[in-house]
Amino acid sequence: MTELSWAQVSARRLQRHRLRTPAANAAPDATRVADVVSAICGAHAQIASAAELSIGLRVPGTTRAVVRRALWTDRTLVKTRGPRGTVHLLAAADLPMWVGALSALPAPSWERSVVLLTPRQTEQVLAAIADAVADADLTTAELTEEIVARTGPWAGDLVMEAFQDKWPRWIAAMTAATRAGVVCFGPNRGRVSTYTSPTRWLPDFAPMPGPPALAALARSYLYAYGPATPAQFARWLAVAPGWATLLFDSLDLTEVTVEGTPAWVSADDTDFPDDQPSGLRLLPYFDAYAVGCHPRERLFPGAAAERALAGGQAGNYPVLLVNGVVAGVWHQRRSGRSIRVTVEPLRPLDAVQQRALGEEVERVGEILEGKASLTVGTVSVGPHA
Prior knowledge:
It comes from Micromonospora trifolii. This is Winged helix DNA-binding domain-containing protein. InterPro entries: AlkZ-like. It holds the Pfam family AlkZ-like. The protein has 385 residues and is α+β, with helices and mostly antiparallel strands. It has a domain at 1-21 and 226-385. Helix content is 40%, strand content 21%. It is built from 16 helices and 15 strands. It has helices at 6-16, 31-39, 48-58, 64-72, 95-104, 109-113, 119-133, 140-151, 174-179, 210-225, 230-237, 241-249, 288-292, 296-299, 303-308, 351-367; strands at 2-4, 43-44, 77-81, 87-91, 158-162, 165-168, 184-189, 192-196, 253-258, 261-266, 280-283, 319-322, 325-335, 338-345, 371-376. Strands 11-12-13-14-15 form a five-stranded mixed β-sheet. A three-stranded mixed β-sheet has the order 1-9-10. Strands 2-4-3 form a three-stranded antiparallel β-sheet. The radius of gyration is 21 Å and the shape is globular. It starts with a strand and ends in a 9-residue tail after the last strand.
């Protein structure tokens, strides 16, 4: 059995996530954007600027305009709900795999506990959504009108809890609609989200069958985050660990140990670098590397666990990554083109790292199409501020 050090695992993940220090003055390469998003199994996009930064940091020369063009003009990216039901940018070419896999996941317990639609009503709502968004970008209010017109007033009943408000009944089918590939996000209309059909990205779109889609997704996950355990894969997808264990048992995987702890990689992907993890990066909210890599105590060592995690959850703070592990937090505040970046290191940075930090802050400004300045000091805002 292959014995691996944490340094080998960390170096491989940095390489797979394209987080090694990029070449200086590299020309933009829009064709690589979708490939990089595919390699990291999607970019979290609840905060649009965070997704743009996650991608831009990994593709030299890329700006937020390049990412937006890939999403809304070239349509090599698609905005939809991915792992854990959270909003992600995914590679459009991967959408059949994602939809096939997500449709085959067991329903979470919270979803089974609230029944607002009968199976027949859910079918009617899904058909109505597909018809309404076939050639249109619709807001929630517009989609509600279209669905009610196609199904009946019951679909618009305000019965679903929504913070301090109520949503129409049909919203209970939105998770199923996303998983089935019936709907994805369209371009925002001002500050309002719209929804549309994935067939506008992939005209011949059809989900992969469940079993091969799940196998492909597991291999993609292990490429980006391996070696990993079934429990870690289950946490990434928000499913039961026992279900993930059965899936791993059905695949052609190779067991390794990471400093004595068993983990798995795909049987045809067992190469690991011998060099040390290196480089300094500023990762935004919910960056894939910070959220998906485990064990968390290795990625967030010592004081980083207390400072950069929120109740054990990763992603709520943008993090300073030094040599593959979290070594601080940071925050940006924008006013026009001016971007004030405050970085709070948790340990002293040497001269080389200080210079790298300045270059990274400059890169953040370039990606977000502004002028960034650096302050090293305490980050005073709380999580997800």
